[in-house]
Amino acid sequence: MLTRTFLLALALLPFGQPAAQAATPAPAASCVSVEDGWIRLPPAPRPMLAGFGRITSKCSDAQAVVGARSPRFGEVSLHETRVVDGVSRMRELERLPLAPGAEAVLQPGGLHLMLMQPDAPAFTEGERVPLVLLLEGGGEVPATLVVRPSAPPRGD
Q1: Is 104 helix (H, G, I), strand (E, B) or coil?
Q2: Could you tell me which of 37, 35, 49, 46 has the C-alpha nearest to residue 114?
Q3: What are the two backbone dihedrals, phi and then psi, of residue 11, each rounded to the nearest 5 degrees?
Q4: Please, is 91 exposed, middle or buried when counting C-beta atoms within 10 Å of its C-beta (0-12, 13-18, 19+)?
Q5: Phi, psi of 51 (to 5 degrees)
Q6: Buried b (16+ CB within 10 A) or exposed e, 46-71
Q7: What pTM was computed for the model?
Q8: How far apart are CA 148 and CA 129, in angstroms?
Q9: What's the pLDDT tens digit per position in 80-132?
């Protein structure tokens, strides 16, 4: 009876994809990059920070950012601030399309990353924070955000 139960359980296991292949990380999208990434240094510890920079696509086909993560934050999401009827409103974006050769500028008052639940009460100027952008289709874009009091000069 035990042998029959074991064989039945073995027959129900998925054999279509080897376990090693299933654990393979998503490929990096080398044609997408984050330039001049930064986090505004707050005057006092905050439970939420904002990330900025330029997401550049040198891809020959359209791409889309569908998420982000960082080991330094419990949650990272892409947001957009717009003024509607004289009132500034912020909303989360589920998808940020990038046309071939295009760039998306993340800046105060516009597109930005919301960095929530930091792993430390405070950050210091010059600190480097790892980030990964998640692309539609499974690609990943590693990046670094530098903690600064203000935006870096373009190309810094």
Answers
A1: strand
A2: 49
A3: -65, -25
A4: exposed
A5: -115, 145
A6: eeebbbbbbbbbebeeebbbbbbbbe
A7: 0.78
A8: 11
A9: 998 888 888 999 999 999 999 999 999 999 999 999 999 998 899 999 999 99
